[in-house]
Amino acid sequence: MFNAVKKIFLWNYARNSWQWDILCVIILIFIFLTPKDWFQNSERGRGAAHQIPVSTLLIGPEMIDIKGDKSLLEQHLRTITKRPEVEVLAVRKLLDEEGKVRGYEIDIR
Fold first, then answer.
1. What pLDDT was estimated at residue 52?
2. Are 106 and 61 in contact (CB under 8 A)?
3. Rounded to whole angstroms, how far apart are CA atoms 109 and 85?
4. What span, in angstroms and rounded, lies between the C-alpha atoms of 76 and 66?
5. Which of 56, 54, 72 is nearest to 64 (CA)?
6. How far apart are CA 52 and CA 25, in angstroms?
7. What is the DSSP string of 25-42?
8. Contact 49, 55 (CB under 8 A)
């Protein structure tokens, strides 16, 4: 019995044996029948409790005067999103064909 277990774990069967075929079928069954959740990035799953994913908000051009002051922008976004922990990561202008500012994309966490 110990020798059979040892051969399975050390993969000590010849390639043209029936044992090799059974092990290959077991591996294929494992690959195709396991839930996708088992293969997700473990850091993402474990880190979700202390990391908030980055989101992108679109705001109108009326925020142009607030854009320069990050603290005012964060305060305004907290009221819009109703999330007290909003942090602004990046602000990008959205321009139309004529080069006028149509709005802003804001990455928040």
1. 58
2. no
3. 8
4. 9
5. 72
6. 41
7. HHHHHHHHHS-GGGGS-H
8. no
Q: Report the half-sphere exposure of 67 (CA within 13 A, side-chain side).
A: 19
N residues, the chain: 109
User: C-alpha dihedral over 20, 23, 25, 30, to 10 degrees?
Assistant: -160
Nearest 5°: CA angle at 72, between 93 and 86?
80
One pLDDT digit (tens) per residue for the chain, 109 residues: 788 788 777 877 788 888 889 889 999 999 999 888 777 765 555 555 555 577 888 888 776 665 567 788 888 888 888 888 888 888 888 888 888 888 888 888 8
Write out the two tokens for 58.
Answer: 């679109």
Q: In whole angstroms, give the CA distance from residue 45 to residue 100.
A: 42
Residue 92 gets which letter from DSSP? E
According to the model, what pLDDT value does residue 64 have? 60
Structure token pair of residue 108: 């928040």
pLDDT at 28: 94
Instruction: Give pTM, 2 decimals.
Output: 0.46
